[in-house]
Amino acid sequence: MELSQTDYIHRYYKKATNSEVTMAMYLGLRDKQVLSITLLQAVARVQLQPRWEGMKTKDITYMIDPQEATECSATSETVRLALRTTEAMCLLHPTPMHYSVVIALRQASQVVLIWCDSLKRDGRQAMKTYSQYYHFLETDSQCFRPNGAYTSPLTIRTITPALPMQDNDTDCGIFTLMYQKTLSDWYGDAAGQEFTEVRINALIRELEKVTNQRATEYRKWLRIHMHTWWKGNWNEILPVLPSKVGGDGKNK
C-alpha cells in the first residue's frame, strides 16, 4: 500500500531528526504546507550541489530591518566582505507568512538587484532598502539606517520582472528555493564572465519559467529525496568552483 505523505516523512526522516519539533519542520514538505524558515534555509544551503564559489545565499533582513527605533543590527566585517565580493547573491527576504528573494549581481562598481516574488507583491520599498544597503556597505558605518541617504561610487539598477504567480497561499518557500536553483544553474555558466545585458536577460527568462507546475514537482522531489542527502547536519558545506572557472576566476 502506498504511504501517505505524512507516513512517508515519519518513516524516512526519522534518522534526520532528534525531536518532535524537527519532525514538524519536515512535515512542511507535504502539499499545501508552508516551509518553516529554518527548513527553507537548510535546503537553500545544500540543495542541488555543487554550490559555487562566487555565489552565496544569505538572509540579511536583521541587518536592514530596525531592531530598535532607528538602527539595525550591526553588519559584521565578514558579512560586509561577503556582500562586497560575491558576484551572485541570493538574498532571502522573509516577511510574516511569506518569502521573497532579491538576487544581487555585482561586478566591480555595477550592481543589479532583481526582485523575485511569487505573489507579485510590491517590492519597490524593499528594493530601495537593499539599494541603500549596498551603498551603506561602501561606508565605514557599522549599523544601517533604513531612513538614511547613502551614496557611493556604485551604480545600482533594480529590475522587477513579471514572474508567474503562485496559485495558493503555501508555495512561496518552494518558489523561493526554485529562484535560488535558477540563479545557481545560471551562475554555473556565467561565472568568470561579464554580466552583460544579454546574460542578465537570460537569467530573467529562466526565472520566468518557475511555474506552479514546476513548484508542485519540486516539492514532491524534495519530499521524496531530501532524506537521502540531508542527515540533519546544520553545518555549512564547502563551496566549489564552477567547472568553467579556475582558481584565479578566469575561464579555463
Please write out the topology.
Blueprint: H1 5-12, H2 20-26, H3 37-46, E1 55-58, H4 61-64, H5 77-85, E2 88-95, E3 98-107, E4 110-116, H6 124-136, E5 155-159, H7 172-190, H8 197-207, H9 212-229
Helix pairs in contact: 3-7, 7-8
For the biggest β-sheet, the strand order reads 1-2-3-4-5
Structural class: alpha/beta
Q: Percent of residues in helical segments?
A: 25-40%
Element order: H for helix, E for strand: HHHEHHEEEHEHHH
Shape by Cα distribution: globular
Q: Which terms would index this structure?
A:
5 strands, Adenoviral Proteinase, Chain, 39% helix, 9 helices, disordered C terminus, alpha/beta, 252 residues, five-stranded mixed sheet
What would you note in describing this structure?
With 252 residues, this protein is of the alpha/beta class. The protein has a domain at 52-215: 3-Layer(aba) Sandwich (Adenoviral Proteinase, Chain). Helices cover 39% and strands 13% of the residues. Strands 1-2-3-4-5 form a five-stranded mixed β-sheet, sandwiched between helices. Helix 6 (124-136) links the parallel strand 4 (110-116) and strand 5. The longest helix has 19 residues, at 172-190. The protein starts with a helix and ends in a 23-residue tail after the last helix. The model is unreliable at 243-252 (pLDDT under 50).
